[in-house]
Every structure is written in C-alpha cells, then in structure tokens.
Design goal:
The chain has about 290 residues and is of the alpha/beta class. About 45% of the residues lie in helices and about 15% in strands. The chain has 2 domains: about 10-195, Alpha-Beta Barrel (TIM Barrel), CATH 3.20.20; about 195-270, no CATH class. The protein has helices at about 15-25, 40-45, 55-70, 95-115, 130-135, 150-165, 180-185, 195-200, 235-250, 255-260, 260-285; strands at about 10, 35-40, 75-80, 120, 120-125, 140-145, 170-175, 190, 205-210, 210-215. The strands form 3 sheets. It has a 4-stranded parallel β-sheet with strand order 1-2-3-4. Strands 5-6-7-8 form a 4-stranded parallel β-sheet, with helices on one face. The model is unreliable at about 280-290 (pLDDT under 50).
C-alpha cells in the first residue's frame, strides 16, 4: 500500500499508526519524491469530546519530523484548529469568534517553530472575510474544509465558491473531499479522505473504468449477496469478467477481496488514485491525491 500512495496524509491522533506507515514507506524507492501531510487530529479528538493541546501536538510533530523528514520530499503540517461548539450543535457567534482567535494563536506559534510548512484551514460556516485572512497566513498553500454533516452537493458548491474567491497561485488541500464530482469540478491542489477504508469495511471495492468510479459489493458476508444485480456473485458473466480484470490489475484476486478487508482497502486506494490522475489530465488543475 505504501508503494501505491504517491503522497499521504497521516493523523497525529493515531500517532502509532503514522509511525508504522512511515517506517515502511521510507524504504520505498520513490520515497524521496513523495510528500507527507500531518493532521493535528483535532477533529477526531473533538468528536470524542477531547481536545488537543499545542504542547502535545508540537511533541508529536517534532517526533515525526525528526524521525522521517529526511526520507521524503517534503512534510506539510496542518494547523491546530480550535473547533467551536459541540458535536451535534452549531456554535454560537461568540464561540466562533473565540475559536478563530485561538486558532490564529496556534498558527502563529506553529509557524514560528516550523515555518511555511504549516497550513491554516478555512472551514465551511466561517465568514467569507475569514478566507482572505487564512490566505494571508500562508499565501502558497491552505486547507479548505467542507462540513461533514452536509450533503455532497452543498459541500461541492461551497468549495467552488471558495475557489472563485482565491487566486490560482494559492494551492488548496481539500479535507475529506474525494467524491468524484468534488474532485473533477473543484480545482484542488490535493485532497484526502478515508472513503477507501470505509467502503472496504462495508464489503465493497471501488473500481475505476470508463471515466467512472463504481462501488461493487463483493464480501461473502454481505446481506446483498442473494439480491440479483447487487452483489458480484449475481452479476452476469460479462460483468464478472470486467470486475475480475480490474481487481487483478492491482495484483489481487476475487477470493482475496471477498474475504479480506485489508485487500479491499488496497484495491480501493489503487483505483481512487487512478481516478485522481485521470481527473488531473482532464482538468489540468488537480494534483496527486493525498490518502
């Protein structure tokens, strides 16, 4: 899997897994051509009712940079955002203002320590004037974060609006933005999400062919197995042959993807990366996907 990932986003909320991946990826022959992005893990912690302190994050960033910075082309560090409100409740205007103030303090301190590799974040729901403040913090590269609790069409329309108000000289990283239309209709510099893992956990593989990324239910334990046309086992021979060819393109077998979620992750990652490269050729603005 390390060989498939041209670039990679890793969360410091799961620092042990970040270490594990980087230890393997550093030995790949192409490691020096790849860029790594480290996320503070603030949203994961907030979702569980926890917080991440700047001191804690600096320790984690320092450890990972000291151990692996020389092995890769570049590292990018996402700012420690203070997330207002609580899960399931919109923040009040007062909470929003205070969160922005504290986020700016964190950015200033991290920027002093690490320089321009720290990326500020503009969130859906923040005033549009805030976007220009974020761009001023790092005019070369920023993160853009659509709301996870909205449908994809509203997330995409908002992302398009953001890019209409940002110079093309500013590279943008889309947080959790690997929907096919989101990727093809928004001029991201890079994107990430855990879709490839979640789809695998649901017993499916994502396969890219003829300009489309399609999810195929393939797990032997899926409740869709008896339903005609909803599971690989009920496909007609021509459909099965097409799926087999796309799975084998990755070096896997149908038996492996039907039994092993880790192999499904591997197949999904390959085909989503393949789609991202195709989008780059068509749109001339997208860059390699960070998974």
């Amino acid at each position: 899997m390390a060989a498939i990932c041209e670039n990679r986003l890793l969360s410091c909320h799961y620092q042990a897994s970040a270490h594990t991946w980087l230890k393997v990826a550093r030995h790949d022959p192409l490691a020096k051509t790849r860029e790594i992005m480290l996320d503070s893990g603030a949203f994961s912690a907030w979702s569980k009712g926890d917080t991440v302190t700047r001191e804690e994050l600096v320790r984690k960033y320092d450890e990972l940079l000291e151990a692996y910075a020389s092995d890769f082309k570049a590292f990018h560090l996402i700012n420690l955002d203070v997330i207002p409100g609580e899960r399931g409740r919109n923040a009040t205007p007062e909470e929003m203002d205070e969160a922005l103030r504290l986020s700016d303090v964190n950015f200033e301190e991290l920027n002093k320590r690490y320089g321009d590799i720290v990326l500020p974040v503009f969130h859906q729901g923040e005033p549009i004037d805030r976007l220009q403040e974020v761009v001023q913090q790092n005019p070369s590269y920023i993160c853009v974060s659509p709301r996870n609790d909205l449908s994809e069409i509203y997330r995409r329309e908002w992302a398009q609006m953001v890019h209409a108000n940002v110079s093309r000289d500013v590279m943008t990283h889309g947080l959790a933005t690997t929907g096919a239309l989101m990727m093809s209709r928004v001029p991201w510099g890079s994107v990430d999400s855990a879709t490839w893992v979640m789809i695998a956990a649901m017993g499916q593989v994502s396969l890219y062919a003829n300009g489309r990324l399609r999810n195929i239910t393939i797990s032997r334990e899926s409740p869709d197995k008896p339903n005609l046309g909803k599971h690989f086992d009920s496909f007609v021979p021509e459909q099965k042959a097409a799926v087999v060819a796309l799975v084998e393109e990755v070096g896997a077998t149908i038996q492996e993807v039907s039994e092993n979620a880790a192999v499904r992750c591997w197949v999904n990652l390959y085909h989503m990366t393949k789609m991202s490269k195709d989008v780059k050729v068509k749109e001339l603005t997208a860059q390699p996907t960070l998974f």
